[in-house]
């Protein structure tokens, strides 16, 4: 490569040693010399750059304007520091563009020609960082302006600096009205008087009460009204200056809802207590005369049996059965009303023992075989409630079994987070249209004078199972028997 005519060996050596991209342009705008750093920046070799117009290194759309600026500078050459001119763009040989800053220095060649030395900095990284910062600031500004919660910024002495629109609406002040004033103006007494002392104590000792923790406090609106709010405070340091940002949420509606909920719970508790007392009183007042009727009916049926004709005997039988049914109904209603209100301790219950006790109480009649699968699990629950569930399901199967070879099977399967139990019979079955109805209170499918039933048993089963986050359902078809399923959680409630 030939040395440029306007440069001696020392100038070429200095340019080659420079780490910044540098080029020298003659009065006509032709590139006379470029150093290796510039070659690397623009993707050209020295031979390729030699004699090219300097506008080759800028995007085509800017070339005409740049030529005019260059000619004006050549007419009155003067040093120009980096960044003092307009933002410029460079163009790589492959066509990609990138932002640059350029410093200019006039030179005089040995033969007296006016030259210009340009030092070029690629500022792509800085521009990307500036763009990222601008986008971050835009996002933060959007959050600040649109946040539903109030955002308040104060300095280390408690002087207000920023309020977002939500905080302005919450307290009734415009940001410009309160800027520079003490944050304690937004607090009712005694918090207002204590706040400055709290900040001073924190600065002296570092002991935190709210900062980084959050708590429920009270705020003071412009109109003098006091309201409850959640406050969380974050500390930060900007330029060596300590700042605090508070996130404020008006919880007036939540507190009102909590008060209403507490009141409803109190009313519910009172109603439950009254219901319990009412159930016991009613049962006592109903069962006392019912026992009298039952005793009288038994006495008549026994001592005056010879005086009754067949129709009279049937009437007496129906009377006695209905007295017994009424007593069972009262007991069933009492049991149903107690579920969820009267709780036993939740303990681990061995269902193998529970089923043995249930079968002993039921004493299945001859002709009905009951099979219980071995190895039933131990579950957490109230022993009495579990006994009621199995007792009602098995007794129902027995009650509606009208065949000499009745079979009832109790089984269990693992169903993930629950156990799934099944009570299966080979009885008359149930039509699908009755599946939902049979779990409703007082609902029976057979006439009560033919099958003694209160219509409480399955409703009681459903209430107990659902109280323990399980579910109960039936699968059946007429003439094909029925299977009653229910699930019970493995984890203790």
UniProtKB/TrEMBL annotation:
Keywords: ATP-binding, Kinase, Membrane, Nucleotide-binding, Phosphoprotein, Transferase. Residues 84-135, 213-263 form the PAC domain. CDD domains: HisKA, PAS. Signal peptide: none annotated. GO terms for biological process: osmosensory signaling via phosphorelay pathway; regulation of DNA-templated transcription. Residues 281-492 form the Histidine kinase domain. It catalyses: ATP + protein L-histidine = ADP + protein N-phospho-L-histidine. Its EC number is 2.7.13.3. It is an enzyme of class 2 (transferase). It is a multi-pass membrane protein. It is found in: Cell inner membrane. PANTHER family: BACTERIOPHYTOCHROME, TWO-COMPONENT HISTIDINE KINASE. Putative oxygen sensor; modulates the activity of FixJ, a transcriptional activator of nitrogen fixation fixK gene. FixL probably acts as a kinase that phosphorylates FixJ. This is Sensor protein FixL. It comes from Pseudoduganella aquatica.
């Amino acid at each position: 490569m030939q040395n440029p005519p306007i440069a001696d060996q020392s100038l070429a050596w200095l340019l080659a040693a420079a780490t910044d991209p540098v080029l020298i342009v003659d009065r006509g705008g032709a590139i006379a010399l470029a150093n290796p750093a510039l070659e690397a920046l623009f993707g050209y070799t020295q031979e390729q750059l030699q004699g090219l117009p300097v506008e080759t290194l800028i995007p085509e759309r800017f070339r005409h304007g740049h030529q005019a600026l260059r000619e004006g500078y050549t007419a009155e050459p003067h040093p120009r520091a980096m960044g003092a001119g307009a933002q410029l763009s460079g163009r790589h040989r492959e066509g990609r563009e990138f932002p640059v800053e350029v410093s200019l220095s006039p030179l005089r060649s040995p033969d007296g020609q006016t030259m210009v030395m340009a030092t070029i900095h690629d500022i792509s990284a800085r521009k990307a960082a500036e763009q990222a910062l601008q986008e971050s600031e835009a996002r933060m500004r959007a959050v600040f302006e649109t946040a539903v919660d109030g955002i308040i910024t104060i300095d280390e002495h408690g002087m207000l600096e920023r309020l977002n629109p939500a905080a302005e609406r919450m307290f009734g002040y415009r940001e410009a009205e309160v800027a520079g004033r003490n944050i304690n103006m937004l607090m009712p007494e005694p918090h207002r008087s204590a706040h400055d002392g709290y900040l001073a104590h924190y600065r002296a000792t570092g002991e935190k009460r709210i900062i980084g923790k959050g708590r429920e406090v009270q705020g003071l609106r412009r109109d003098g009204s006091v309201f409850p709010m959640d406050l969380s405070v974050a500390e930060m340091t900007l330029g060596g200056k300590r700042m605090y940002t508070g996130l404020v949420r008006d919880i007036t509606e939540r507190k009102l809802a909590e008060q209403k909920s507490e009141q409803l719970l109190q009313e519910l508790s009172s109603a439950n207590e009254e219901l319990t007392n009412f159930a016991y009183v009613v049962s006592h007042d109903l069962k006392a005369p019912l026992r009298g009727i039952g005793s009288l009916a038994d006495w008549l049926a026994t001592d005056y049996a010879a005086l009754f004709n067949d129709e009279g005997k049937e009437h007496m039988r129906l009377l006695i059965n209905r007295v017994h049914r009424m007593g069972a109904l009262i007991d069933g209603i009492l049991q149903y009303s107690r579920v969820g209100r009267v709780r036993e301790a939740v303990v681990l219950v061995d269902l193998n023992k529970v089923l043995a006790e249930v079968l002993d109480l039921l004493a299945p009649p001859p002709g009905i075989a009951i099979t219980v699968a071995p190895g039933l699990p131990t579950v957490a629950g109230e022993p009495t409630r579990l006994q009621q569930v199995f007792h009602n399901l098995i007794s129902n199967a027995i009650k509606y079994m009208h065949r000499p070879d009745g079979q009832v099977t109790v089984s269990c399967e693992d169903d993930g987070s629950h156990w799934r139990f099944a009570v299966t019979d080979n009885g008359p079955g149930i039509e699908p249209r009755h599946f939902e109805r049979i779990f409703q209170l007082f609902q029976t499918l057979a006439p009560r004078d033919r099958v003694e039933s209160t219509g409480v048993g399955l409703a009681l089963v459903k209430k107990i199972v659902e109280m323990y986050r399980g579910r109960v359902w039936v699968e059946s078809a007429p003439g094909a028997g029925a299977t009653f399923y229910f699930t019970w959680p493995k984890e203790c409630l």
